[in-house]
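Box S1 | Example of a co-folding query
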Amino acid sequence: MSFKAGFVAITGKPNAGKSTLMNRILGKSLSAVTPKVQTTRHRIKGILNSDDYQIVFSDTPGILEPAYELHKKMLEAIEQSMQDADVILLVDDVSSPHSEESVFQQIGKLSLPLIIALNKADLADTQKLETRINLFKKIFPHAELIPISATSDFNLDTLVKVLLKYLPEGQPYYSTEELSDRNERFFAEEIIREQIFLNYQKEIPYSCEVVVDQWQEFASLIKIYSIIFVMRESQKRIILGNKGIAIRKMATIARKKLERFTGKKVFLDITIKVKEGWRNDEKSLKRLGYRNE
Ligand SMILES: Nc1nc2c(ncn2[C@@H]2O[C@H](COP(=O)(O)OP(=O)(O)OP(=O)(O)O)[C@@H](O)[C@H]2O)c(=O)[nH]1
Ligand SMILES: [Mg+2]
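Box S1 (continued) | Returned holo structure for magnesium ion
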């Protein structure tokens, strides 16, 4: 077999399990995963290397109706990822009620091969799964449908084999040691943001953005100075919690995850700053890293 290389755009509704799937296929937690919707905000490339192929996955934000400028940036990330793709991988959560969304219309218009991963098969009985398969067969008669479970590693090897069928022959796009197009700072920001999603409720995770301001690396230690931007003073108080207990708890978990990710001891400093309306301000978003890649 000659070498195959290509781009797979992962898309689907929020919370379908797109990031979980990419992490599981790569065997590394690159993308933030939480039970909350709209966890992923940026496009993140994950590279799967083998002797015979290189698959470049693009994990993207869940498709949503834009309410803020931030959402528009998130949608741009999805569009960009589709434009570059050789194959579209639509991830569907079979355990959630099916709804016809603009997602499907958009995908239907593309003339790319479409693979539909019917995810969370561990939560659906055979009948539910069959109903869903029949439904998708009607909407996308040419798509390949594969029931999977990202968290139980069910059928993921089959999915990779099917993806390979549709990838072109060619040379690798990235060095075969690379796992992603993003740097360690970016992943540090994502690890901290993931912990905000997991440790705080309601609007808090959606009002926060994380920036790594300084990164100082020594032989066995990394000092990471980060800033959490919130939109209001009251949110800063919530993040801190009574006597700083909440932020200490969150920071400890984030630090441990950062240590696992980098393989070094980590000193993590977090400053909280109020930046009113960052979510709706083009300039702030640009400074926070929302630009076309
Ligand atoms: N039971 C079950 N849960 C899953 C499976 N795949 C993902 N999940 C869970 O679904 C939730 C959402 O997963 P994510 O990977 O963050 O979903 P996403 O599609 O990337 O979400 P956004 O980034 O918000 O668009 C998490 O709590 C996952 O643990 C699966 O196969 N089975
Ligand atoms: Mg995600």
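The chain has two domains: 4-165, 184-287. The longest helix spans residues 245-262.
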